[in-house]
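Quick one, tokens below. Sequence please?
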């Protein structure tokens, strides 16, 4: 618990995945991607806002001349349950034909967001589309969705930190922490 920032005591139960474990997973995935995409036109697409921290760490572990951009989607309101409806807030304006797309997400939960994004990008003529996520909650799937590159599987807990938020806050925590139940059960 000494790794936590002081203000997290009121909102976080415990560290679920430490910054060191995250760093190791990022390095492992980056090495795999470097090997798999050698000689290919790689276009990395980060999903905002949750994916921003993983994206920044991951691209520094990919030893290839890649291009990158961000999209922004929203599927959560201010609660801990997904609305099931994905809203596109910021799209990519460059053509994606002839590129190998790698979508970078913070977490796969229900799978709804990534299913929507894969189907949408498939209409733009890319050579391939793969999905990369730092965290995965496989027990929560509502639709079939498997990450091609997966960092760390976690249990069905609502987590914050390393890009993930609760009510727009706590994305800046360096470790992945479990949100205290009494914080969101008040809602
Ligand atoms: P989906 O349910 O797979 O569509 O997940 C959509 C989004 O929900 C993810 O990209 C996250 O931003 C968010 N999300 C899912 N689980 C959590 C969580 O435990 N904490 C914070 N955000 C989450
Ligand atoms: Mg979110």
């Amino acid at each position: 618990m000494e790794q936590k920032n002081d203000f997290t005591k009121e909102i976080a139960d415990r560290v679920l995945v430490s910054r060191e474990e995250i760093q190791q997973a990022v390095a492992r995935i980056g090495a795999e991607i470097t090997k798999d995409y050698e000689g290919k036109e790689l276009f990395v697409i980060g999903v905002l806002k949750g994916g921003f921290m993983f994206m920044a760490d991951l691209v520094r572990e990919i030893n290839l001349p890649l291009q990158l951009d961000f999209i922004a989607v929203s599927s959560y309101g201010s609660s801990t349950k997904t609305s099931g409806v994905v809203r596109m807030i910021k799209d990519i304006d460059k053509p994606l034909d002839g590129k190998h797309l790698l979508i970078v997400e913070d977490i796969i939960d229900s799978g709804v967001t990534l299913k929507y994004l894969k189907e949408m990008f498939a209409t733009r003529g890319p050579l391939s589309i793969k999905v990369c996520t730092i965290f995965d909650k496989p027990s929560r799937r509502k639709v079939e969705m498997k990450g091609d590159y997966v960092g760390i599987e976690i249990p069905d807990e609502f987590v914050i930190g390393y890009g993930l938020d609760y009510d727009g806050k706590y994305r800046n925590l360096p470790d992945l922490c479990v949100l205290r139940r009494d914080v969101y059960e008040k809602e």
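Residues 18-156 form a domain with the Rossmann fold fold (CATH 3.40.50.2020). The first strand starts at residue 12 and ends at 17.
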